Amino acid sequence: METDEAVKKLRGWFSGRLPGEWFEGQPEIVLDREEIAVVGRLQAPVLGDDVSEVERAAAVEGGVQRFREETRERRIEIALEAEHRFRRKVSWGVAVGDETVMFTTLSVPVMTRLRQSERRVLDTLVAAGVARSRSDALAWCVRLVGKNTDTWLTDLRDALQHVDRVRASGPDLNS
User: What angle do CA 25, 31, 34 make, to 5 degrees?
Assistant: First the structure.
């Protein structure tokens, strides 16, 4: 888990580095050991009240695609600087309304040991066509758990940040 200080430093750096016209407000910065995800909020398309949901969704999709294409070169330039400076890959995404679209993300291999009953769950998901492989099935399970336990995970992350703050305020054992 990363410290509040690291996230604040990243948020400050990206706030100073990103063009002000790209996003509404500050982008969300999500940090883990391998990746920095930058998710900015785009203004929702201004459409009339008589527009169908299909048209509204297509307008959002078109706006996201336009933003992605128009900002590609600058995003790559900024990502390369950040990757050199912070030693992590940078992923980009946007939020419009309730929808978040990630342009680039890392798929990081994770080693795990599963018992036969747990492997059978993954194999069932593969056999049912929910996932193409055990790896995809495990990722599907993780997303499902994350989606259904959002409050619990948020509380756990908050508690871990509190532990980091307490550790930081303690004596330095390396001197």
Answer: 140
Q: Is the pLDDT of residue 1 over 50?
A: no
Give the N- to C-terminal CA distance of the chain in Å, as an integer. 24
Among 27, 28, 35, 33, CA closest to 3: 33
Q: Evaluate whether 75 touches 92 at the Cβ level (below 8 Å).
A: yes
Given a contact cutoff of 8 angstroms between Cβ atoms, the answer to whether 79 and 49 are in contact is: no
pLDDT digits (tens, 9 = 90+) for 144-175: 888 778 787 788 888 888 888 888 888 877 66
Which H, E and C letters describe 70-96, residue by residue? HHHHHHHHHHHHHHHHHCCEEEEEEEE
pTM assigned to the model = 0.68
Q: State both tokens at 27.
A: 């982008």
Q: How many CB atoms lie within 10 A of CB 41?
A: 17
Which tokens is 123 given? 């194999």
CA 175, CA 90: separation in Å to the nearest integer? 34
Task: Spell out a b/e string for 130-144, using b for 16 or more CB atoms within 10 Å of the CB, else e.
Answer: ebeeeeebbeebeee
Residue partners of 97: CB distance under 8 A and separation at least 6 = 44, 60
- The rounded distance, in Å, linking the Cα atoms of 147 and 145 is 5
